[in-house]
Amino acid sequence: MLSRATRSGRLALAGCRQQLAAVQQTQAQRRLLSGSKSEDEGPKLWGGRFTGAVDPLMEKFNASIGFDKRMWKEDLHGSMCYTRALVRAGLLTEEEGSKMQEGLELVHKEWAAGDFKIKSSDEDIHSANERRLTELIGSDVAGKLHTGRSRNDQVATDVRLWLKAQVKDLQQELVQLMRTATNRAEAEVDIIFPGYTHLQPAQPIRWGHYLMAYCNMWKRDAERLQDLLKRVDVMPLGSGALAGHAFLGPDDRTALAEDIGFSQGPSWNSLDATSDRDFVVEFLFWASLTGVHISKFAEDCIIYSSNEFKYMAMSDAYSTGSSLMPQKKNPDACELLRGKSGRNIGNLTTMLVALKGLPSTYNKDLQEDKEPLFDSVDTMKGCLPIATGVLATLKLNTDRMQKGLSADMLATDLADYLVRKGVPFRETHHISGQAVQIAENQNKPLSSVTLEELKTLHSAFEEDVEKVWSFESSVESRDAQGSTSRRSVLQQTAAMKEWLDNYEKSA
């Protein structure tokens, strides 16, 4: 008689067999519904040790061709250069190398013309290009292309090549935004308007000084982008899957890096080169921070163009209306600039979370690097020219800006007046605050507080205190480097123009 444990074990085994049969039946049904068996679509690059078919659902789950196909040009460029490296290493004859190059050029033409046909068995851009190359020139030559190469070092190379090109484009867009800000700051240097802290009126500043504040933020963003490029511009190709290359000599990768166009040469460690995506994280951080700076500018434009402020008006080219309320003119461009900054932060978080739990070397999780990267590149390529357009077409309402200035914004100047009379600043700050209180109690502007009333606060007040009540004098008194005086603002714009010229030459 069987024991209870034995009976339970047999029941469990029977249950497992039933589950396995159900899974196999489901897989067969999926293959039937998909119209073809995955093994009929062509051999996998990794299929040698497998005998069973891949579930069609797994095929889709595993594939990245839907998004990494945008790297087709970089993938083919890498393969063309790698072909030449294989010829130099004696792994391909000159004739085989020429045939390989001709085939790769044909694949390139198909992609460029929009004629390349992706098949369901194409997992990624690498397998798609190799599959088509094999169809064009045969496996006897095409089968040698992947000698010593892994998709691990291949994809890392493709992503770096692709990102390099995108960084160059983004640098130009960022420069255009900065030039627009600098040119307006110089041309409109004489406009004075309220400066705010905590969204409360604080001190008068020049409009040009305000614009140069953002220009300096974007300058640091541009510097970070240029610095990032040094770490992107390193070649992983020749690292193999993780342990390195079995056929290339000690100096062959240096020649390969020069051929492909990696200015920083080949990577120094194959484990690191194939597995780390810190350069992707670094770019996503750049996109996040630059997006935050643009969002900050957009928020200012939204506030300053509101009916309560009316310091500026958005161009119709960057505004939309309401489907119900005919009078509405909505700052949608700025609201989207503000909203899209969150996408970049989300992409950065996605990438950091994907990386944080990985063991060393390559893991399939790294396939998740591309969609956040591609999305943030696309987002920034959309945001930068829109921000430039918004800034270039803003129409200022200088009358409203002037009316926004009030005498209480000169309270600091009143304190500074006493400092120049030899009174300690802590005391002058208190005295100026008392003058503000007098004005508030009598419901009159600070500039209307009489000399007699001021003298009750301190004997240092004299007739020349009247000079304090000038917004022009206020901004001109702040003449140190980086301040809001006319001379200082023009110094800022001149320095920024010189910096931009040098940056464009080096970018």
TrEMBL record:
GO biological processes: L-arginine biosynthetic process via ornithine
Domain of life: Eukaryota
Ranges for domain Fumarate lyase N-terminal: 48-346
GO CC, any one term: cytosol
A matching Pfam family: ASL_C2
Domain Argininosuccinate lyase C-terminal: 409-476
Family statement: Belongs to the lyase 1 family. Argininosuccinate lyase subfamily.
Name assigned to this protein: Argininosuccinate lyase
Lineage: Eukaryota, Sar, Stramenopiles, Bigyra, Labyrinthulomycetes
